[in-house]
UniProtKB/TrEMBL annotation, chains A, B:
Enoyl reductase (ER) domain residues: 10-322
Gene Ontology MF term list: NADPH binding; oxidoreductase activity, acting on NAD(P)H
Domain of life (superkingdom): Bacteria
PANTHER family: QUINONE OXIDOREDUCTASE PIG3, QUINONE OXIDOREDUCTASE PIG3-RELATED
InterPro entries per record: ADH-like_C, ADH-like_N, ER, GroES-like_sf, NAD(P)-bd_dom_sf, Quinone_OxRdtase_PIG3
Species name: Lentibacillus amyloliquefaciens
Pfam families attached to this UniProt entry: ADH_N (PF08240), ADH_zinc_N (PF00107)
Name the record gives this protein: NADPH:quinone oxidoreductase
Alphabetic keyword roster: NADP, Oxidoreductase
Length: 326, 326
């Protein structure tokens, strides 16, 4: 079968579609014929050899397709349409997917739409609910609102929790899109001091919850934007990981809960439980269309380099996909 | 009546016992004739004019004594023995205590013992359970194990949760005492690298929970001592508040939950709920003697300066009290 791997050599910066053995499946897996895979920042880190936890030479941490071998798992039959997180290997014709995190695709969604769901929606769900404990009608600040996780989080916070959603993004085009998804307060971080706008929008109280993909660059402004006793979930360091001169008293006197998290390196059991709760809780909203996967661009698998480049250019709204069915 | 206030003048470094008006009580308060008050680090900050939230010229945030005026509150009668947090004014003959945080003193405890309970045991309970979510048989690292909060936290973690308790302190005398209270692994931080000892004691896994009174000086070692997904509660910065360099990736890749907290500036409602849950949950253990208040020294009220000095010398094991009934 064909799979996308990083080219040999020191300069790990290009991938190629090449012949690879069909994946072996373990007792816990089903074999999925991939229709679409999706691109994630963790794939870029793996391509560059920087993540440290890639175990599969084929890139890709999520896919959607059909069951080619149910491998004795009674909940699935050959031909069932499924989507889910995989332990690498998503950019391929076939992938081994742990059965306990394969989610059936509602009939209203295409394979491409389904491939746009697992990583970003599970991350948004995990950070908003498992870690961030978002409550009904609370206020949440979502940075990178037009990103994959951002567009998922806006919808979940509005539809599941009727939250007040404040987003930041770097262009009017992105902010307009966020507003269409339900965001209440769009802030252009290039033109406005987001902490001042957040305080204006919250009667100077600040937000209950921050989803922070940025890290160092936004630290001080996030500290000013959060309510006393607020929760702050750190899920990315696009704006740097190195912080200088932190005053711990500001965490104490504001009773801040700061939690760091990542999804990809979590255990199989964690991903299975998250997928199963998500399928029960959120997929019904997707089936009726009130929450929807957001696709930016679909590239053919052989243009994976271009797809990565597109993500690195940071112009996408929602997910970048690879079509593996050609 | 007599009350202890800071002397006038620029150099706020001395207190005196002086004539003050008897406190006015609001609708929510009872009036307590104070038998013993206790000294806290927040009193030292107030004495130095550094806390920013003192509202009462008389120092002291907790007291034990008898109800002098129940002020219509049906749960109390004149002469009832009570202990609790107050909004300043504890170092006095009489103090106004919000009725909904006054806790009845079990008959097995003296006033002095009772005065040693509220602040440190409520803080230990709040940080271990409300914030730290300590579960049965988990492992907890308690810094400053011989301090007021430390001695309370060791006992609660052992008696309520059968936790494995690792403590740090700076002398063998303190560590022996911690062991007598139930601590499993005593570490002399002056002689041993505590992170290495913690890893030895936990099969290299680290602890589930850290109670951190130290802040900056222990940051790196705490990061090495905590389990993946562990909780870290920051309740003091005795080792400095200013961190020069923080790498946010270590919070993310270890899924750390870091929560800052303080008790004294919390709302009345928060303190009432905490006191009420504590009275239901912990006081039965005190009544039967398996959890006990730890008293270091009792000073007469007129020697409050000496009592503060004793706390600043950092040689105490457990609480420093002021006797106000002389």
């Amino acid at each position: 079968m064909k799979g996308i791997v990083v080219k040999e050599g020191n300069n790990r910066n290009e991938m190629e579609l090449t012949d690879m053995p069909k994946p072996e499946i373990g007792a816990g897996d089903v074999l999925v014929k991939v229709d679409h895979a999706a691109v994630n920042r963790t794939d870029i880190l793996n391509r560059e050899g920087k993540s440290g936890y890639a175990v599969n030479p084929i890139l890709g941490v999520e896919a959607a397709g059909t069951i080619a071998d149910a491998n004795g798992h009674q909940s699935f039959a050959e031909g069932d349409r499924v989507m889910g997180l995989v332990n690498g290997g998503g950019y391929a014709e076939y992938v081994a997917m742990p059965a306990d995190r394969a989610m059936k695709i509602p009939s209203s969604l295409s394979f491409a739409e389904a491939a746009a769901i697992p990583e970003v929606f599970l991350t948004a769900y995990q950070t908003l609910y498992w870690i961030g404990k978002l409550q009904q009608h609370e206020t949440v600040l979502i940075h990178a609102g037009a990103s994959g996780v951002g567009t998922a989080a806006i919808q979940l916070a509005k539809q599941l929790s009727e939250a007040k959603v404040i987003v930041t993004a770097g262009s009017e085009r992105k902010l307009t899109f966020c507003r269409e998804l339900g965001a209440d307060v769009p802030i252009n971080y290039k033109e406005q001091a987001f902490d001042e706008e957040v305080l204006k929008a919250t009667d100077n109280e600040g937000v209950d919850l921050i989803l922070d993909f940025i890290g160092a660059d936004y630290w001080d402004k996030n500290m000013k934007s959060i309510k006393k006793g607020g929760r702050w979930v750190l899920i990315g360091v696009l704006g740097g990981a190195e912080l200088e001169n932190v005053n711990l008293m500001s965490l104490m006197s504001n009773y801040i809960q700061l939690t760091g998290t990542l999804l990809t390196p979590r255990t199989d059991a964690y991903k299975a439980e998250l997928s199963s709760e998500f399928a029960r809780t959120v997929i019904p909203y997707m089936d009726k269309g009130s929450v929807r996967p957001i696709i930016d661009t679909i590239f053919p698998g052989r243009k994976a380099n271009q797809a990565h480049q597109h993500m690195e250019n940071n112009q996408n709204i929602g997910k970048i996909l690879l079509s593996m069915n050609e």
